[in-house]
Amino acid sequence: MKLVYINDELATGDGSNSHAVGLMRAFTDILGQDNVITYPRPVDGSQMAVNLKAGKLRSKLKGLLAFIRFFRKKILSVKRSKEICADLNSKGFIPTHVIARATDFDITAIYVAQKYNARLVYEVNSPTFYERGVIKKEPMIGALEKWERRIINASDKVYVVSNVCRDMLCEHYGIDKDKFIVIPNGYMADLYTESADEKKKIRDEVRKKEGISDKFTVTFVGSLKTWHGIIEFCETAKLMQDNKNISFLVIGDGEMHDTIQNYVQNHSNMIFKGKMNLENMKKYLYASDLGIMPYVSKDKFYYSPLKMFDMIGSGLPFVGTSVGQVQEICESELSFDFLTDTNKNEVLRKRIEALEGSSELDQMRIKVQEYSKKASWNTRAQALIDQIN
Predict the structure, then answer these.
(1) What pLDDT sits at residue 69?
(2) Parent domain of 320
């Protein structure tokens, strides 16, 4: 197999960068460096700061930006396609497969696949018609739907990260399920390589540095979005502020930054570290005792939570709302002990207190470590390669 992987997230600071880079590294490990070419050149997006002001500005100008993006992509993607083909020709690289992440109005993947008669695999993390049209209420939804239908029809296979995402696309566009490959997200196996003794040393150093050596530490890791249950997370911490044995830790940043910052300024039982690079994030996961995903329950939970898999990679047991793929993974691979029926603060408080220092938590940790053996990006990439080759 000769693979071209086209994914703009390879060069961004967004959360999906770790997905793109993790998958790219796995492709390279499996197929060999000479058999994989990526566009653009990958960077470690975890090193980039979150620009909160730019995010708010984009939200206000989403109408204007949608029109600019439409015309810009239609014009520039033709130029980009020709440049990629010229680069491939200069390297003597004839692709047999093209995998491309969803990008509005960008014909690059279609152009390159047709140029070399390669199989085209379209990678989808979220249904555009729903996320951009229903949730964000962006303009030009008709054009977006037309584009999404076009590239799905042009693809040999569509790789999605969840069953819910597949089902939404099938129902909306009337496409047979056989065209879809469902593979959840994963974690970078080459990130979590320390021995048990090395992990303990890192854990002790971080806990001493943060003043939590004697605390049961509950950690939220990920982007700070409303549907991630940030409000409920803070309400739970507030409810437990008199329990001096428990501390809360936040790794990540985003639109709910001010909510976390305001809580930390007025309470003493939470530490806010903001966005961290992957190496530092790993160390703080080692230093934690319990992960938490208090996600808001919603019918169309089409996501595959990346940070759930980072917790799995680090060996950290967690509890999460019984929704979407969190529920699927826990019920099929872990156990019901990892789930809560709701993200209400009283329920979360009781669950955290029940797990603190318990043998049940030890058993959950063992289950996580066992499942981690088959949840890395290498495992996911191999499963994808097996189905498209």
Answers:
(1) 66
(2) 196-374
